[in-house]
Write a structure and sequence with these properties.
The chain has about 290 residues and is of the alpha/beta class. About 40% of the residues lie in helices and about 10% in strands. A seven-stranded parallel sheet has the order 3-2-1-4-5-6-7, with helices on both faces. InterPro entries: KR_dom, NAD(P)-bd_dom_sf, SDR_fam.
Length: about 290
């Protein structure tokens, strides 16, 4: 399933964090779920791309501090700050973003990589409390972050100065049902539609993009394997660098859209006018 004829399984020149045309120089970047997986890898990509500051959010500050230490040990010249906060804690998230803006003046880019996988199994028997907690993280957590971001964002910013919010989603949101995945996919499908509405309601204030990161071997993927769901994996450099590109001005035409990190960005850019002008890459009902 691909919108572009060409697909990728690892980073390439057009999205490389070292590509000067998508530089994050001077940008203040906030990444949730930065302790591990894609959020962790994205931290290094944005540091490589020259971000002025990296704000790492997660549940365990000691793990975030290890990420920050590794970034500095690689000689990457970016300031880091770590905050332990639950993305569902409305007051905690608001307070954290206010602290960030107080220190750095603004937030340019938010990468929302935090997410939760409920127990896998038929909806008839899945523990409802565990399922609902995943809904809270994947839906309430995303909206909590979006509201806090909008509260510290000045209206009327356009072009390169307009802040960007990117949320990781799943291809399962638009595919036929996978056994045992109903709860997770339903929660992510809801966040996908929320992203479309946030983009539509805040066109002059915030750019919002949903990204399927590819199939990456992360702790969440390990849980899928335990349930018997195995996939051919992409290299984690693919989503981590794709996020740098998606946050750049080159991807401004994707506001409100859902894209796969596997898709070729040069071919996406060639279709920019068509993508902006119609319902392509939006959540719709086939057959109407």
């Amino acid at each position: 399933m691909s919108f572009t004829p060409t697909t990728h399984n690892a980073s390439y020149e057009a999205i490389s964090a070292t590509n000067p045309s998508i530089s994050a120089a001077g940008k203040v970047v906030l990444i949730t779920g930065a302790e591990s997986g894609i959020g962790n890898a994205a931290s290094f990509s944005f540091a490589t791309a020259g971000a002025k500051a990296l704000i790492l959010l997660g549940r365990r500050v000691e793990l975030l501090e290890q990420v920050a230490k590794s970034i500095h040990e690689k000689g990457l010249d970016t300031e880091t700050a770590c905050f332990a906060v639950d993305v569902c804690d409305e007051q905690g998230v608001k307070s954290t973003l206010n602290q960030i803006v107080s220190k750095f003046g603004r937030i340019d880019i938010v990468i929302h990589a935090a997410g939760a996988l409920p127990p896998l199994g038929p909806l008839a028997t899945v523990p409802l409390d565990d399922l609902w907690r995943a809904f809270e993280v994947n839906i309430k957590g995303f909206l909590t972050l979006a509201q806090a971001m909008l509260a510290v964002t000045t209206s009327g910013q356009e072009g390169a100065s307009q802040p960007v919010l990117i949320v990781l989603n799943t291809a399962g949101s638009i595919m036929p049902p996978l056994p045992g995945m109903g709860g997770y996919v339903a929660s992510k499908m809801s966040s996908l539609k929320l992203a479309e509405y946030l983009a539509s309601e805040n066109k002059n204030k915030l750019r919002v993009i949903s990204v399927h990161p590819g199939l990456i071997q992360t702790p969440m993927a390990e849980e899928l394997e335990k349930a018997g769901l195995r996939f051919p994996y992409d290299d984690i450099s693919l989503p981590s660098d794709f996020l740098v590109w998606a946050a750049s001005q080159e991807a401004a035409f994707l506001n409100g859209k859902f894209v796969f990190a596997n898709w070729d960005v040069e071919e996406l850019k060639a279709s920019a006018g068509k993508i902006e002008g119609d319902a392509d890459l939006s959540l719709m009902l086939r057959g109407l």
